[in-house]
Design a protein that fits this description.
Length: about 150
Amino acid sequence: MPYGRNILARMQMKLFRPLLALTVLAAAIAGPAAAQTADQAIFGVWRNPKNSVHVDVRPCAAGACGVVVWANADAQADARKGGTENLIGLQLFRNFNQQANGRWRGKVFVPDLNATFSGSAELIDRDHLRARGCLFANVLCKAQVWVRVAPPLG
């Protein structure tokens, strides 16, 4: 019987080696593509929790930037009260750079307060983004979950 086990073990190794080689090859090919997709996953049009503002996040010279492409009447009125005449076309997310942990960090402009804060963005999944803004380094912070409504425009 030991002879039979030896044959079985050799057959398993013959099947295992090509499978292992294919797995390593697939990982080598998919690795850079997966990393590129992860880097670009933040790009697209996102809406805030109240669905009052839509922001197109796309690559810019500083990393990633987000521009308002749609806002309801209430959001536009709030922005005007804060001193921002035109909300549509306004850059809300500025100089966002991807960190080693996959989180993005940059500046967030809040039109109704007419102020800029430190911010971060982190994908929860493909269609949900946790956006966070802080008055001071991780003090007096507010987080929201934004929802993807479209791929990047243009």
